[in-house]
Amino acid sequence: MARKAVKEETLDPENWAAMRDLGHKMLDDILDSLENVRNSPVWEPITENLLKRIGEPLPLEPQGPEKVYRDLCEIKETNRTTGPKHPRFWGWVMGTGNVMSGYADMIASALNASSQSSISWCYFVEAQVIEWCKEMLGYPKEASGVIVSGGSMANLVGLTVARNVKAGYDIRKNGLQSASRKMTLYGSSEMHSCLQKSVELLGLGDDSLRRIPVDRDFRMNIDVLEKTISDDREAGFHPICVIGTAGTTNTGSFDDLNKLANVCKRESLWFHVDGAFGAWAALSPEISHLVNGMEKADSLAFDLHKWMYMSYEVGCTLVRDKKAHYQTFALMPEYLAHDEKQPPWFSDLCFELSRSFKGLKVWMSLKEHGVRKYSRLIQQNVDQAQYLKKLVEETPQLELLAPVPLNVVCFRYKAENHDDESLNKLNARILERQWLNGNCMISSTMIGDKCALRACFTNHRSTREDIDFMVKEVIKLGNEIARNVNG
Ligand SMILES: *Cc1c(COP(=O)(O)O)cnc(C)c1O
Questions:
Q1: Residues forming a β-bridge with 270
Q2: Per-residue pLDDT reduced to its tens digit, 330-385
Q3: Looking at ligand 1, which atom is closest to the CA of residue 313?
């Protein structure tokens, strides 16, 4: 039978040579911008013009690769914000990213290979990276682990295992409806908001997450923790888990992880540690004592895109009890049948099924630079935070608002004849003006009732001169604004 001629379509380039040239140009542009990152503003405001450029109608017909890239370049020209890549960026807890991560993500995306199952070599690269993480963080070798998108997801994975193990019945089958007592969890008042989101998602409700007050160093008060657990037991609740923080977002403080581990052991509670960025203190001998006890955690959540400087997104959960981890997530419908004797697929260890090959950038970055260099960079950031702390203490117009155990400095501009409320406004205004100037960027938080300017050092590009510059800017802006307010 004569076949009718059909012209089938594909998304592959019509002109491979032109696509190759375009790719080379993109790579050149990327490297130009990274090499010269210092010369672009840290931040530029979002303008109407920018939103208009982005807000195009749905493209129904092909525009061609060159035009697509030209349009993107125009958008980037309209807003030249470098964000956390810039050496003078210290806002929130953001990652600087590294060049090799960009290459790795490009390769991972081009491979379009999922690292999900142990039939793919990518799986074994990711598994190796998890082995390396255990070794770097001093976590037991027998533990299992899974690479996820970031700290929030990593904490959710850990708390899910905690809930399922400690529920005391088959919660996967029967759900929370069958709980005879309400489960409760404990963390400090300084713990990250993703833990609240996690207990909400897990159906436990925000009320079940007890906020234990902190001491002057922003560490969980253990006496109050013990009392709260015992009060809860008496009132008929079912305590299941204590969450320790290794490096709080606000001030970089560490709960006493050894003491928390002891409480958990005595009370038969799951011990989860959120070490999003602070876990990496383990790499530097001068500060590794801060994470003592972290190795005793039943589950440990951390990021690699914050203080390991890799590009977004990549985080990881480690779980001491392999079997508990597997039993929390494993599910094998016919269409995903795999040999249970083989290493577990990553979908057996978290909610997600399809996954990108995020482990590749970890593998490539660690190999490129070596762990010793990461140790030095982490210590360099800690030293920079201590340098800023000293500058603040030596400058009469500035006031330190919290201890600096790690890499976060909370301080404020101070002026005569201003109460806390007016200083709060003044410091918020300083921040606003500093962002608009776009030559450096810190963020803010509240320390008690005081608005703090907050600098977090997870940046591998910063120098002391950058810190000097930022301090001068804060003082200059503070003086200007205070003068206007008074005059
Ligand atoms: C950033 C952070 C998180 C959340 O991590 P993401 O990677 O942003 O999802 C959790 N805990 C702490 C202490 C953090 O600093």
A1: 241
A2: 998 988 888 888 889 999 999 999 999 999 999 999 999 999 999 999 999 999 99
A3: 7
Q: Which atom of ligand 1 is nearest to the CA of 152?
A: 9
Query: Residue 486 above 70 pLDDT?
Result: no
Contact (Cβ atoms closer than 8 angstroms) between residue 189 and residue 337: no
**β-strands 450-456, 443-447 pairing:** antiparallel
Residue nearest to atom 5 of ligand 1 (CA): 151
Question: Which of 274, 291, 304, 312, when mutated, tests ligand 1's pocket best, judged by the most ligand atoms within 8 Å of its CB?
Answer: 274
Separation of alpha carbons 275 and 293, rounded Å: 12
Give pLDDT tens digits for 442-466.
999 999 999 999 999 999 999 999 9
CA–CA gap between residue 304 and residue 149 (Å, rounded): 10
pLDDT at position 487? 44
CA of 151 to the centre of ligand 1 (A): 5
364: left (phi > 0), else alpha (psi -120 to 50), else beta?
Answer: alpha
Lining residues, ligand 1, CB within 6 Å:
93, 150-152, 192, 194, 245, 247-249, 274, 276-277, 303, 315
The whole-model pTM stands at: 0.97
> What backbone phi and psi angles, to 5 degrees, belong to 468?
-55, -45
